Amino acid sequence: MNILITGATGFIGNAILLALLQQGHKVIACSRHPEKLLSQSEHLTRLTIDFETADQTEHWLPHLKNIDAVINCVGIIAETKHQSFAQLHTNAPIALFTAAAQSGVQKSSKFLRWVQMRMPNRLIT
Fold first, then answer.
1. Which residue ranges of the chain lie beneath pLDDT 50?
2. What is the pTM of this model?
3. Which helix H or strand E contains 5, and what residues bound it?
4. What angle do CA 60, 2, 73 make, to 5 degrees?
């Protein structure tokens, strides 16, 4: 499968990334600092994306061509001057999963279903 994963340099995201690569998937790994990814694989594509500014569907659409699944692993445990819960946990993921739905991505993390249940008018199903 061709999989786009966000938060790929984080603790959980990196563990999932490594497992996906070991299983032979082609992965686009999104992160603010993809140069920090230690994995070297011909199946790995690094993509610089900052969730703090990626809150529009149009931002994600070019990166979702030929993608079969999207996994969102971005998350913070405390807000900072440059990172808010609303932006990283709501706005950017809604834009990502809306773009995924528009692009015909068939599989996504469970977060999509959570958002659809709570904000049905915000996503295209």
1. 111-116, 119, 122-125
2. 0.85
3. strand 2-6
4. 60
